[in-house]
Amino acid sequence: MLDRRAFLTTGLAGGAALAGLSSAVAAEGPVLTDDGLYKEPWFLESFLELPDDLDGARKAGKRFAIMWELRGCPYCKETHFVNFAQPRISDYVKSNFEMLQLNIIGSRKVTDFDGEELTEKALAAKYGVRFTPTFQFFPDTLDGLKDKPPVKREVARIPGYFRPDDFLAMFRYVREKAYENKSFIDFVKSGA
User: Fold this and answer.
1) Which H/E stretch holds residue 156?
2) What is the assigned CATH class of domain 29-189?
């Protein structure tokens, strides 16, 4: 059975292949979109239903994360052109995460884990996202997630720009579930 997520992924991949764009876009790296945000070709295409996105990531053997950005944000741009430009980082993130890009002042409708539908801007406020870039990392399953308050739904957060080594370490920290028994600082200090 073809669900909404599979339809979107299949439809977009097929359309890009028909247009002969898939390899050209992937080779170019981030693309500046109409809303002024840089977008990686491997970012998640979504109906903006967070429970479906998290469940889809789980089914693909990946973790779900949100990258919050803002038009003109210099550190967002640096994340794309410095951090994601390094194959060791982009390859790790692509292989292990489904990354949803949201605009901190955006007006697209997003369905939160608790079923509430709100704008990107309102969702950012609900989760206390106040600056960009911010990365939110969520558990690997939906179990009990909708019943938790928003501040308790994340397993980790990158609050602003992290240098490449620390940036990659945070993705490893989440993927390896190290947050279950140590702080991020202890994880980095352990040389993991």
Assistant:
1) strand 156-159
2) alpha beta
